[in-house]
Amino acid sequence: MTAATAHATGRAPEAAPGAAPPAVTGVLAGTGATCSVGHGVEASFAALLDGRDGLAPLRGLDARRYGAGHAYEVDDRPDGRDVPGRAGALLVAAVREAADAAGLGTLAGVPVLVGTGLRELRSLELSWLRRADGPDPDRVPAPFGPDDLHFGPALRALGADDVHTFSNACSASLYAAGLALDLLALGHPAVVVGGVDVLTSSMFGLLDRVHLDPPERLRPFDAARKGVLMGEGAAAVVLTRGPAPGAAARDAAAGASRATLLRAVALGCDAFHATAPDPDGVERTIRAAHAAAGVGPRDVDVVYAHGTGTLLNDEAEAVALSRVFGADAPVTAAVKGATGHTSGGSGLFSLVMAERTLATGLVPGVRGLREPTPAAAGLRLPTGTVRIGRSRIAQVDAFGFGGLNAVAVLERTGTDAPREPA
Fold first, then answer.
1. Please, what is the Cα angle at 298 between 309 and 3, to 5 degrees?
2. What does the domain layout of the chain look like in residue ranges?
3. Phi, then psi, of 412 in degrees rounded to 5
4. Hey, which residues does 267 pair with through a beta bridge?
5. Which of 5, 126, 186, 356 has its CA 20 to 30 A from that of 333?
6. What is this structure's pTM?
7. What is the domain class of 3-15+22-413 according to CATH?
């Protein structure tokens, strides 16, 4: 049994000759993030607490070609025109922030696992447009081909020489976090996990064709939600080896110095349907994450939901959460109402924001929520920032097409009181 299987099933690997080493937790030694509402972890979290969002008219795409004229884009385009390499640039910024916070001078020899839905597809689209429209050096300075889609070249600026990309739809970056725990268990002292996606004309157009009545904004768990709107962003964490899951609570009780641990990531693939999520599969993955982390539903203080604002996803996730938590549901955040759906990077972005909640005791309200859908009526979905009395365990959800489910469990150790964000 591999460590990855243990994360997916909630069972620890057997201590047999040749078996995988026991699972460990990962210490969040550094975090990084950027999105449409803020550049950097603290700025992004502060914007969420303030109730801001990044919804704006389309910048990089021609709005005349789509029914939906708005998205949640990072405003970093020179002269408002799209340029190649934006996904890599956002990723590098987030990884650099996380590495600096962790005190890593270089990423040489450190595995870097990147979760993404589309990699640098927008750069390839711009190259296609250049060939179709004729040379335009102001638009695309150099040809861009399929071999340039990965992020290894961009991350060389930070010394990275061991970069791996995982495309597991919208759960990609949490999948990468689960694989990072396996690498820590196998002896790596540190692993960097990143997640990123930017708008592409192909994906934006695909979703636009699905919405005959395009949504004016993304409304997680709202009864009047119409569907998803895309966003852009990147997130990163540096994970170092922590104690085995059973030892984390003992360390906290003994007054260990404060730290946030990635206790477990449950990975599932129920293959229920190409696009429709299965509440049974989501529920199984949540329960597997709790079992692998050694916690129960009543231990969870806050949930960062996937919350895409689509009819089927929000319904399935709300049903699964209600089954797991019953009448004692914890406060539930859903950041996509502020950031849009940042695709493969969204799970890790939520994880970074959940770490801030555990450190501060503050949970951002669900932007765009007016009246919860009946399935979510039993969930505690704040519309404004709230403070939770206890902030030790957080659950983070990310679900992708094809039943690619991922659920992470974080723990804040130590005895320090939560502090306000900077």
1. 80
2. 3-15+22-413
3. -100, 115
4. 406
5. 5
6. 0.89
7. alpha beta
Yes or no: say if 107 and 160 are a contact pair by the CB < 8 Å rule. yes
Instruction: Please classify residue 370 by burial: count the beta carbons closer than 10 Å to its beta carbon, then call 0-12 exposed, 13-18 middle and 19+ buried.
Output: exposed
Cα distance between residue 68 and residue 62, in whole Å: 11
Q: Strand pairing of 302-304 and 259-269? A: unpaired
CB 268 within 8 A of CB 405: yes
Bridge partner list, 397? 407
Q: How confident is the model at residue 9 (pLDDT cuts 50, 70, 90)?
A: very low
Q: Residue 284: which of 264, 268, 263, 298 has the closest Cα?
A: 268
Per DSSP, the residues of 266-300 read EEEE----SS---HHHHHHHHHHHHHHHT--GGG-
What do you get for the CA distance between the two ends of the chain, in Å? 44
Tokens encoding 167: 């495309």
In angstroms, the CA 9 to CA 287 distance is: 9
Q: What is the pLDDT of residues 164-199, one digit of tens each?
A: 999 989 999 999 999 999 999 999 999 999 999 999
